[in-house]
Amino acid sequence: MSKKIITFAHNQSCFLTFPTTMTEKNITTKIQVFSYSELSEENKKLVDLAREATQAAYAPYSHFHVGSALLLDNGVWIKGANQENAAFAGICGERSAIYNAGANYPGVAIKKLAVTAFTNNEFVEEPCAPCGVCRQAILEFEKNAPHPIEIFLIGREKIYRLASIASMLPLSFKEF
Question: How far apart are CA 4 and CA 13, in angstroms?
Answer without folding.
Answer: 10
